[in-house]
């Protein structure tokens, strides 16, 4: 497998190193953000801000603190439009006009309908205090007239470090009325040569203090870039439609194929979980700027951040989770006979084989291709600018600077990128199009186009004017990544994307010159080097991984197993019901009725009527411990043993003793059977009975007589070999009279539970039967069942309910 890879591997790595150098060189010449990096970290900006607040006299210790780095994107883009990219670089490098800065915010965690005291400090990229804004509560009083306020503002301007006040002129002033004071705003302006914009400073005087000193670039009102918003809105709309359509396709295919049992889901679930965790970690690692500029009613700033995170985690991130999960799982069918080429390295990793030749074939080449792609992308942007076709604009985000641990953000954003783009657009879309008989060129090309259109909304890596040129770098990435996937496999494509993402973000950190950021770059480069070394080791010294024959998907096995068990339980249920008496005996002067209502799970309840000599009748009711198929089997066994011994003697004790002896030798020690067995002499109206650990029968009489329980002694069948059982078992006998009702039942009635997990109970059951005595045998059973159903409500029946009623008529 490695023979075709080993020969050119050195060439690829030499080319990759050259591409890294060239890509960085081109990015310096084309990327505006590379000329506006922070030279201090977030923590350093906070330290600068706190030191300034101490000098200002603001007590910040009881305030919350957030900091984030941002660009004056509108102003920078206007300068790019008027000066060109090279002119912008000269402007940003020499004029000192603030086009990027740290904003450090101090706030009180109070609802927004309360008076809010807020302090913002602006720190330049190099660590100089640019200005501040102090939002005083409206209740603070103190005012100056306009003339004295202007003199105060001018003097303050003259004292501000690194500002030549003589070059600024007053261009506007206005006043803002508050309930207890009057604030005066003054705007000073310095015209900038070669541009239609201006360098402005806004100063606000509130009583005896300056509450705002804001230094900024005022872009011209008319600019070609003004139409960027409309163009981006169009492209973003197209991007969202394309992505939603693709998401719907993956979901439909997944549901269909999952139902058909043609795909596995375990690996797709793991991949989606990794992406979800990476997204959440990215937010937490960049918590300071999270939710900035968003308001939710009167909810405070702090709680707004948490609410927005909750919305993201339960809506946006879940949507991405589902998309990646369904894309990965649905594509398992489309991979088909290309699995050995496309999924060899990934299958090896999922099998826990990290240093196989399969991994070595894809990982180092993928990392090298990512470095080459890094150079290609910046070359494309450089040529667009050199040929006058388009020029880059300021990016939309600065996440890498706004994180507590930039290296962690490097990794989590790269993980999200590789799993999102390479799973959805490479693994799923290319394999799906190819299965639809598209040619390799068509499959890769369409996938690249769809990924480029989707990236307009979901990625902030590139922003180019005119807007449609933004498609080109994303299209180039899609084509190269698709080519890598087609020829080398998914692991190679992921490694390429990972390498490119790391190099893109590392360039932004490298240009800062700050040691903290440089250490992050060193860590990222060390990681790429370590992965490359591991891949080369696997290539030269690893063994070939041969995946086992892909078995039936696990969820299909579970479904089949569940179906098989359901069939077995249904058979057991039919056996259970089939062993019950088909008709009730007819005896002069007596009325007999019996029922067994099985629960959802098969149990071991049983009742029987046995014709005996001299017209006598055996009545049995039993309950096998446990549930399921074994209980049904033991019930069958119990019926056979009882019938074989009942006809030999009319003594219930003797019958149960013989049944116990055989049951003990037959069933497992953890099982037993409770039984109430009686012999009815209809001619003399006498009943002999014995109880082997079963619920006592209930004897009801018409009138006011209290119920009587037939609770002779006895232990369950199968618990003891014989001597103790026979010694313990007692036999009783009663004389029956007209109007009496004898009720045999199992504990499914008394142990029924309602929705509050309350048990019905034996005392309540006996009381209900007594209050409703005098009914026919069948009516007594119907009444009892209705009462239990009323009590249980929507709670499921968890045990069989079996009852036999003997009614003595006149």
TrEMBL record:
SMART domains (UniProt xref): PP2C_SIG
Q: Does the record bear Membrane in its keywords?
A: yes
Q: Which residues form a coiled coil?
A: none
Give the Gene Ontology MF terms in alphabetical order. Answer: endopeptidase activity; phosphatase activity
- Domain spans labelled PPM-type phosphatase: 587-808
| Pfam families noted in UniProt | Rce1-like, SpoIIE
State which residue ranges cross the membrane.
9-27, 233-255, 267-287, 307-331, 363-384, 404-429, 441-462, 474-496, 517-540
Top-level taxon of origin: Bacteria
Q: Which UniProt keywords apply?
A: Hydrolase, Membrane, Transmembrane, Transmembrane helix
Tell me which InterPro entries the record gives. Answer: Bact_Sigma-Reg (IPR052016), PPM-type-like_dom_sf (IPR036457), PPM-type_phosphatase-like_dom (IPR001932), Rce1/LyrA-like_dom (IPR003675)
- Mention one GO biological process in which this protein takes part, according to its record: CAAX-box protein maturation
Q: What is this protein called?
A: PPM-type phosphatase domain-containing protein
């Amino acid at each position: 497998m490695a023979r075709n890879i080993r020969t050119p591997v050195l060439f690829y790595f030499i080319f990759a190193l050259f591409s890294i150098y060239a890509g960085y060189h081109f990015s310096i010449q084309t990327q505006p953000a590379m000329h506006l990096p922070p030279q201090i970290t977030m923590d350093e900006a906070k330290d600068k801000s706190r030191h300034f607040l101490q000098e200002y006299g603001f007590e910040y210790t009881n305030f919350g603190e957030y900091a984030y780095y941002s660009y004056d994107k509108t102003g920078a883009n206007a300068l790019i439009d008027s000066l060109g990219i090279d002119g912008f670089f000269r402007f940003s490098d020499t004029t000192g006009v603030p086009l990027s800065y740290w904003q450090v915010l101090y706030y009180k965690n109070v609802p927004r309908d309360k008076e809010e005291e807020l302090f913002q400090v602006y720190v330049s990229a190099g660590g100089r205090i640019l200005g501040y804004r102090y939002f005083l509560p409206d209740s603070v009083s103190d005012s100056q007239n306009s003339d004295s306020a202007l003199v105060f503002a001018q003097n303050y301007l003259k004292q501000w470090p690194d500002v030549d006040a003589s070059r600024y002129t007053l261009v506007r002033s206005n006043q803002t009325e508050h309930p207890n004071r009057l604030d005066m705003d003054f705007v000073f302006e310095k015209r900038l040569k070669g541009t239609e914009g201006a360098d402005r400073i806004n100063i606000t005087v509130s009583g005896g203090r300056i509450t705002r000193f804001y230094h900024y670039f005022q872009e011209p009102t008319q600019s070609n870039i003004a139409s960027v918003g409309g163009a981006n809105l169009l492209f973003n709309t197209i991007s969202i439609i394309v992505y939603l359509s693709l998401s719907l396709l993956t979901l439909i295919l997944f549901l269909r194929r999952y139902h058909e049992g043609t795909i596995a889901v375990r690996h797709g679930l793991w991949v989606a979980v990794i992406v979800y965790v990476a997204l959440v970690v990215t937010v937490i690692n960049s918590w300071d700027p999270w939710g900035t500029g968003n308001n939710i009613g009167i909810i405070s700033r702090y709680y707004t951040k948490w609410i927005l995170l909750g919305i993201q985690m339960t809506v946006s991130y879940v949507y991405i989770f589902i998309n990646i999960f369904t894309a990965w799982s649905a594509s398992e069918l489309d991979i088909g006979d290309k699995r050995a080429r496309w999924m060899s390295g990934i299958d090896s990793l999922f099998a826990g084989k990290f240093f196989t030749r399969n991994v070595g074939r894809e990982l180092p080449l993928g990392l090298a291709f990512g470095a080459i792609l890094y150079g290609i992308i910046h070359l494309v942007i450089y040529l667009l600018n050199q040929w006058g076709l388009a020029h880059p604009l300021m990016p939309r985000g600065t996440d890498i600077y706004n994180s507590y641990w930039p290296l962690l953000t490097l990794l989590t954003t790269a993980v999200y990128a590789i799993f999102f783009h390479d799973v959805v657009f490479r693994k799923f879309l290319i394999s799906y199009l190819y299965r639809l008989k598209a040619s390799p060129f068509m499959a890769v090309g369409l996938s690249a186009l769809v990924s480029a259109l989707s990236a307009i909304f979901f990625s902030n890596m590139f922003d180019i004017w005119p807007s449609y040129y933004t498609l080109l770098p994303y299209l180039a990435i899609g084509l190269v990544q698709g080519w890598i996937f087609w020829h080398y496999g998914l692991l190679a494509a992921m490694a390429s994307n990972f390498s490119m993402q790391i190099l893109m973000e590392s360039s932004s950190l490298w240009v800062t010159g700050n040691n903290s950021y440089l250490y992050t770059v060193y860590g990222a480069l060390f990681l790429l080097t370590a992965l490359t070394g591991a891949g080369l080791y696997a290539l030269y010294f690893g063994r070939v991984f041969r995946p086992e024959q892909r078995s039936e998907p696990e969820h299909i096995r579970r479904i089949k197993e569940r179906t098989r068990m359901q069939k077995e339980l249904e058979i057991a249920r039919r056996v259970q019901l089939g062993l019950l008496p088909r008709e009730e005996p007819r005896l002069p002067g007596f009325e007999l009725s019996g029922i067994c209502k099985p629960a959802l799970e098969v149990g071991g309840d049983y009742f029987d009527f046995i014709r005996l000599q001299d017209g006598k009748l055996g009545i049995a009711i039993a309950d096998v411990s446990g549930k399921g198929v074994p209980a049904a089997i033991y019930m069958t066994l119990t019926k056979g043993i009882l019938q074989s011994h009942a006809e030999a003697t009319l003594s219930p004790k003797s019958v149960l003793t013989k049944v116990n002896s055989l049951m003990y030798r037959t069933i497992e020690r953890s099982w037993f059977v409770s039984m109430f067995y009686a012999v009815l002499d209809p001619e003399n109206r006498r009943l002999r009975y014995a109880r082997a650990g079963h619920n006592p029968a209930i004897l009801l009489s018409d009138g006011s007589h209290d119920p009587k329980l037939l609770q002779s002694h006895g232990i369950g069948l199968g618990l003891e070999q014989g001597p103790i059982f026979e010694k313990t078992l007692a036999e009783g006998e009663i004389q029956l009279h007209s109007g009496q009702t004898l009720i045999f039942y199992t504990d499914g009635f008394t142990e029924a539970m309602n929705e509050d997990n309350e048990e019905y109970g034996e005392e309540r059951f006996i009381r209900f039967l007594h209050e409703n005595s005098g009914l026919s045998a069948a009516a007594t059973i119907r009444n009892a069942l209705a009462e239990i159903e009323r009590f249980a409500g929507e709670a499921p029946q968890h045990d069989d309910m079996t009852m036999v009623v003997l009614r003595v008529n006149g």
